[in-house]
From TrEMBL:
Keywords: Isomerase. Signal peptide: none annotated. One of its GO terms (cellular component) is DNA topoisomerase type II (double strand cut, ATP-hydrolyzing) complex. It comes from Monoraphidium neglectum. One of its GO terms (biological process) is DNA topological change. This is DNA gyrase subunit A. GO terms for molecular function: ATP binding; DNA binding; DNA topoisomerase type II (double strand cut, ATP-hydrolyzing) activity. Residues 208-219 have a biased composition (Acidic residues). Its EC number is 5.99.1.3. It holds the Pfam family DNA_gyraseA_C. It is an enzyme of class 5 (isomerase). Residues 201-237 are annotated as: Disordered. The keyword Nucleotidyltransferase does not apply.
Length: 276
């Protein structure tokens, strides 16, 4: 018997031009606003219905054309914004150089009409740095930064450890990077997910099964046995990590790893991070 493939072959989501690559996919309604973040640190917005509808096999339309831009921008994030552009939500941004910033989403409300084709500055970048990821968060959540060497740093979203700043303010240092290392992605745990991860972490520690990794690079292993025979596969939240290198065979299959998010909630939060 042969085990089923880890990843199905899937279907094409659109025809790509030249050396272009798919970066982001979101679901939204026609009247939602889409917030675009460029590598340069600028933010743009457009109503979803202004994006031309196309078939699954179509090549799509250039973002610059949809936004009415006169100059080229490289975009790193696309987010559906809530109708009110507020609701206590914040925009969190991370750069390749390890800088992070949290700004109230309402600070970008001027983009709601989609008439500011020049965009607004969302984060001031140091020379040579660029925006790598962005997402929406709420107080009580947790931000996870992943580096090119497989290390993860985390910090909680609150006014003590990661306070909100205005659009013109400087960013904070979110992860101390080694020479040649850079931040490649950012994940955000919602408050409910973060609470579940903290509970799992505490249960592991109480059971003496927590082999949490510190900055020296020890692995995190162990699991929580819950009453009632809960299937371990249903315990969560999980952090799924995918690498860019294939693992053999004729068909390209990226390496995939799955780890409970509680394994990354180190005492004291972010900083240098640890290898997972």
């Amino acid at each position: 018997m042969h085990a089923p493939p880890l990843l199905p072959s899937g279907k094409s989501g659109g025809r790509l031009r030249g050396d272009d690559a798919l970066e982001e996919a979101v679901t939204c309604s026609a009247h939602d606003s889409l917030l675009f973040l460029a590598a340069s640190g600028k933010a743009f917005s457009v109503r979803a219905w202004r994006v031309p509808e196309a078939s699954r096999a179509a090549a799509g339309t250039a973002i610059a054309q949809v936004l009415g831009l006169s100059s080229a921008e490289r975009f790193t994030a696309m987010l559906p914004a809530p109708p009110s552009w507020d609701g206590g939500r914040h925009l969190v941004m991370a750069t390749r150089g390890g800088a992070v910033k949290r700004t109230q989403l309402s600070s970008f409300a001027s983009l709601k009409t989609g008439k500011r084709s020049s965009g607004v500055l969302a984060i001031n970048l140091e020379e040579g740095d660029s925006l790598v990821s962005a997402g929406l968060c709420e107080n009580g959540g947790v931000v996870l930064l992943t580096s090119s060497s497989g290390r993860v740093a985390n910090f909680e979203v609150d006014d003590d450890t990661f306070r909100s700043k205005g659009r013109a303010a400087a960013a904070n240092k979110g992860m101390r990077l080694k020479p040649g290392e850079q931040v490649v992605s950012m994940s955000i745990l919602l408050p409910q997910q973060a609470a579940a991860a903290r509970s799992q972490r505490a249960a592991l520690a109480a059971a003496g099964e927590d082999e949490g990794e510190d900055d020296d690079g020890d692995d995190v292993t162990g699991s929580v046995e819950q009453e009632g025979g809960v299937d371990p596969e249903e315990e969560g939240p999980w952090l799924v990590v995918i690498t860019s290198k294939g693992i053999g065979g004729r068909r390209f299959r990226p390496s995939v790893g799955q780890t409970r998010a509680c394994a990354f909630l180190l005492p004291g939060g972010g900083g240098a991070g640890g290898t997972r």
